[in-house]
Amino acid sequence: MRFPRELFAPELLQELLSETASTVREDGDTLVFDHMYVERRMTPLNIYLRTAAEPAAERAVLDYGQCIRDLAYTNIFAGDLLLKNFGVTRHGRVIFYDYDELCAVTDCHFRDLPQATNLEDEMRGEAWFYVGDNDIFPETFIRFLAFTDAQRAALLKLHGEILTARFWRHVQERIKEGEIMEVLPYHPHRVRVAPEG
Question: Are 53 and 23 part of one and the same domain?
Fold first, then answer.
């Protein structure tokens, strides 16, 4: 990316050229960035849900579910679905921004959570069954999400299937078959259907 050199304060320009010399260089009157991360300004979802009015919070919870679904459709499993790893933009959209635990959906082993057959197994602090490196139990996700009862109910009503191993295995099958699943870049309520006739 190229920017006019005059946009940068002398102190910042000096720091960029000394600290990031492998990716930032001068080219005449422009400053060239060979490598750059651009991130929208967002409010972490967990903080947003504590401060937003209930209708806005519910919309964000539903968009959170859609975000996870959209990532899955593009063969991305976020790894850590905690609310703090998602942000809300000024337009009210929820975006995933914590990339350190990403993996391909097709590399995961989505399992149904085994049911305990006795009280001793239920009370254990650790899993009483074998858990492999790539094993994921989607029905446990909800336990780690700090939603109000109303927010949890809204998520379950619209996106409850993302909390099932069946959903994730079905997405894996579709991806492996080469299906391209549609991911819309806008809220469904913004879709305008042309009148017939």
Answer: no
CA distances from 139 to 11, 33, 115, 160, 165 (A): 51, 43, 12, 9, 7
- Which tens digits make up the pLDDT trace of 47-60? 999 999 999 999 99
Cα–Cα distance for residue pair 154/138, rounded to 1 Å = 17
Domain span at residue 119 reads 43-183
Is the separation of the CB atoms in 154 and 58 below 8 Å? yes
72 and 7 together in one domain: no
Q: Which residue carries 């993996």 as its tokens?
A: 103
Q: Which residues pair with 87 in a beta bridge?
A: 44, 95
Q: From 37, 65, 72, select the one nearest 154 (Cα to Cα).
A: 65
The structural domain count of the chain equals 2
Q: Is the pLDDT assigned to residue 64 strictly greater than 60? A: yes
The structure tokens listed for 164 are 């099932």
Give the total residue count for the chain.
Answer: 197
User: Given this model, what pLDDT does residue 98 score?
Assistant: 82
Q: pLDDT tens, 80-135?
A: 899 999 999 988 899 998 888 899 999 999 998 887 777 776 666 677 666 778 88
Cα angle for residues 37, 45, 102 (degrees, 5° grid): 50
Whether residue 76 is contained in a domain is answered as: yes
CA atoms within 13 A on the CB side of 159: 23
